[in-house]
């Protein structure tokens, strides 16, 4: 299972599906630099990137957290499924289909924020900044 980082406070209100301009972290009110590496707060399912906050489901947050820890390198399907399902090797029968759905949802959310998920068919996924796709 992916460990959660400790932060004070909670994000209130409904969860918008697109990035929102912010100047402070919604979890801990810490000031954000103008350009920060993308980071997922697992306690609030929030992606912080380039002065934007993006609210995610818990499964989306876990997948993105794992991908961002290895950014821009590829992460295998098996590593992502293991992270999602708490160390159950292979996960449930529907794990691969669920993973593909989470990645599809993340692609729609991340592209406007300047991040892209790439696929290496038969292996896994990686995250890159849109301007740095090779």
UniProtKB/TrEMBL annotation:
Entries under InterPro entries matching the protein: OmpR/PhoB-type_DNA-bd (IPR001867), Sig_transdc_resp-reg_C-effctor (IPR016032), WH-like_DNA-bd_sf (IPR036388)
Residues in OmpR/PhoB-type domain copies: 29-129
Residue ranges, annotated region (Disordered): 1-20
Keyword terms, alphabetized: DNA-binding
Entry's Gene Ontology molecular function annotations: DNA binding
Keyword Lipoprotein: no
Gene Ontology terms: biological process: phosphorelay signal transduction system; regulation of DNA-templated transcription
Compositionally biased tracts (Polar residues): 1-18
Name of the protein described by the UniProt record: OmpR/PhoB-type domain-containing protein
Species this protein is from: marine sediment metagenome
